[in-house]
Amino acid sequence: MHREATFFVTATGSMPDFGIRNGDLLVVDRAIDPVDQSIVVAVIDGDFTVRQLCHTPEGIVLRAASDGSEDLHIGKDQDLSVWGVVRWSIHRV
After folding, report:
1. Is 26:10 a contact under the CB 8 Å cutoff?
2. Which end of the chain is more exposed for a tag (fewer CB within 10 A), N or C?
3. What span, in angstroms and rounded, lies between the C-alpha atoms of 33 and 26?
4. What's the average model confidence in pLDDT over 67-80?
5. CA distance linking residue 12 with residue 59, whole number of Å
6. What is the C-alpha to C-alpha distance for residues 35 and 32, in angstroms, rounded to an integer?
7. CB atoms closer than 10 angstroms to residue 24
8. What is the maximum span of the chain, computed from C-alpha positions, in angstroms?
9. What is the CATH number of the domain that holds 77?
10. Nearest residue to 50 (alpha-carbon basis) of 88, 92, 5, 4
């Protein structure tokens, strides 16, 4: 972990395939370079989202991994910025 580049974000919505529940505290490290299949906080055209970053032959896909959301296929005309990599998800038991 990089203390100076680590932030906390509250999840709104869930990603059950990745163990993220609605209301979880996400620990996000901005100093880590994302790799294929990282869970990331991304900014798409000014909107923040938490998704799995996937590199495909067709381009970048941000996978939702939840029942209520669809995958986002990033077009060439869209502005995508990876804000940080989710390292931990903390929730109550």
Report:
1. yes
2. C
3. 17
4. 89
5. 27
6. 9
7. 22
8. 42
9. 2.10.109.10
10. 88
Q: Give the number of domains in the chain.
A: 1
Six-digit token string for 27: 């620990």
With bands split at pLDDT 50, 70 and 90, how would you rate the model's confidence at 21?
Answer: very high
Residues whose CB falls within 8 Å of the CB of residue 71, separated by 6 or more in sequence, listed in order: 61, 62, 63, 64
Domain hosting 23: range is 3-90
- pLDDT tier at 78 (50, 70, 90 boundaries)? very high
Count CA atoms within 13 Å of residue 53 on its CB side.
18
d(CA 6, CA 26): 10
- The secondary structure of residue 53, as a DSSP letter, is E
